[in-house]
């Protein structure tokens, strides 16, 4: 299936929308790093909030203080969550396993 051809105005609008989404995800990760947001609270919003839902779980975990790529990879492997999984795509069991592993 070919991508639709966009007018220059539609392309600019799409680029602005994508940049705004990236900025919002960055702000979410920064809030987690500061401690203003918690992983359980963020995952609760994943189904209703498009920005949270489209953020990769690995990126959310890397935002936690003390969690780097190696620790996050080990945690995801332990809980059976694929590294490319997005927050909205977590099943109930995966979500609970992740929250239990973070305690």
TrEMBL record:
NCBIfam families: actino_IHF. Residues 35-100 form the Integration host factor-like helix-two turn-helix domain. Pfam families: H2TH_5. Gene3D superfamilies: 1.10.8.50. This is Integration host factor-like helix-two turn-helix domain-containing protein. It comes from the Bacteria. Transmembrane segments: none annotated.
